[in-house]
Design goal:
The structure holds 2 protein chains of 2 kinds.
Chain A lengths: L14 E2 L1 H17 L6 E3 L7 E3 L2 H23 L9 E2 H7 L4 H4 L15
Parallel strand pairs in A: 1-2
Antiparallel strand pairs in A: 2-3
Chain B lengths: L4 E4 L1 H9 L3 H16 L5 E2 L2 E2 L2 E2 L3 E6 L22 E8 L7 E9 L6 H16 L2
Parallel strand pairs in B: 1-7
Antiparallel strand pairs in B: 2-5, 3-4, 5-6, 6-7
The chains are: A mainly alpha, B alpha+beta.
Amino acid sequence: MGRGTNPAKRRSHDVLGTRELRDQIPAILRDLREDVDSEPIVGGANRKPEIVILSYAGYLGLMDHLDNLAIVTQVRERIPAADIELGTSLEDAARELGLDPDVIFAEAEDLAPHDAPAT
Amino acid sequence: MDQVNVTLTDEAKADLRTLPSQQLQVVALQWMQRLKKRPDLGAPLDWREGQDLREAFKLYFAENDTPLEQNFIAKKRSEEGAPYRIVYRLLPSARKPATAQVIAVGPKYGPEGGVYARAAKRYELLIDLEP
């Protein structure tokens, strides 16, 4: 079982029974219409979680997110590990620009922490 | 505060190359050098271009800056006073940073949306790619 797919590890929801669901459909629709990011509604017979109701916009967002995760997984598999590390050191970046770090950073040798942020 | 490493992403290095003068490249690198001892030197960012950049920081710079001078004091600038920005984040956290990673460098405004638009796109990708 993949990470995050174990229902026991997910937070629990209040589960509405079928009668409550039926009675509350108009209110649920109104709530989802007013706030597409509101919590999904979980329901089922005998309060056993069987269905989830969420806004259509929320559903589309969820599908987009899943697509993105799939893409990221593919990209990770294709990019060598070194390429997703933190990058190039300041000194190497200077050299790549044809600059000598010993010269351009020379004045920093005895630099004491001081001034305020440049805002 | 302990000294931190400063690194540049490939995109940030490409940004450096596109700065209009070598003097600006040197000034930008010198500001980054300052970050080694003062990773908190930049001002915190907020939401930009629909991306949460609250974990990132910005430094303003201009061609005539001399950030490594012993007595250099960064003056408070108007929005138009310092045309260039360095955007970076602190890893593993802003509270206990070990690395300042520069994400984007360049003018605030530009034909493709400026430095913050680029930083926002890259920041999102960096977060997605992190294990």
